[in-house]
Amino acid sequence: MMKKFLLVIGLLFGFSGIATADGLTAPSLWKNQRGSELRITSLTGSQLHGTFTNYAPNTQCRGIAYPISGFTTSGPTQFTVNFVKCSTVTTWSGSAQPFGYSAGWVLRYKGQVEGGYDFFYRVN
Ligand code: BTN
């Protein structure tokens, strides 16, 4: 009986440990495979605050830090960037793990829609 009790307690702590490791944390700095930077400055509950700076080759609006709006959970993590000077709005959606954040994105530019994938690794 005691063994079962200890096993249940152990599992509860174990799972909660894994669950809290999910999602993006603040402050943190992430880079994707295109060289772009995602900076998380703070969290209000699950709401993300920070900036995204595009450095992807063959794109516009590089080197400008735009504010992000989005949320992070132990399930999905999603954020949107309005690249105002480029009339482009992109939304990333995926799953954040301690080792990285893998996200699909949808880019909208003047009625055109493009999609792709980015992998963000933590740099700070
Ligand atoms: C534009 O060229 O219209 C604005 C910049 C768009 C950059 C895109 S957003 C998705 C993808 N991932 C990046 O890091 N940059 C590109």
Helices, strands, pairings?
Blueprint: H1 2-20, E1 28-32, E2 37-44, E3 47-53, E4 65-72, E5 76-83, E6 88-97, E7 100-109, E8 112-122
Antiparallel strand pairs: 1-2, 1-8, 2-3, 3-4, 4-5, 5-6, 6-7, 7-8
Which descriptors apply to this entry?
124 residues; binds biotin; globular; 15% helix; eight-stranded antiparallel barrel
Brief digest:
By secondary structure, the protein is α+β, with helices and mostly antiparallel strands.
Walk me through this protein's architecture:
15% of the residues lie in helices and 54% in strands. With 124 residues, it is an alpha+beta fold. The protein has an 8-stranded antiparallel beta barrel. The chain is globular, with a radius of gyration of 18 Å. Strand 4 (65-72) and strand 5 form a beta hairpin. The protein has 1 helix and 8 strands, in the order H-E-E-E-E-E-E-E-E. It binds biotin. Biotin is lined by residues 32, 34, 36, 54, 56, 59-61, 83, 86, 88, 90, 105, 107, 109, 118. The site of biotin has 16 residues, from strand 6 and strand 7.
Uncertain segments? 1-21
Structural class based on helices, strands and sheet pairing: alpha+beta
Bound molecules: biotin
Approximately what portion of the residues adopt beta-strand conformation?
Answer: over 45%
Number of distinct beta strands = 8
Count of helical stretches: 1
What distance lies between the first and last C-alpha atoms, to the nearest angstrom?
46 Å
Radius of gyration: 18 Å
- Measured as a percent range, the helix fraction is 10-25%
Q: Strands of the biggest beta sheet: in what spatial order? A: 1-2-3-4-5-6-7-8
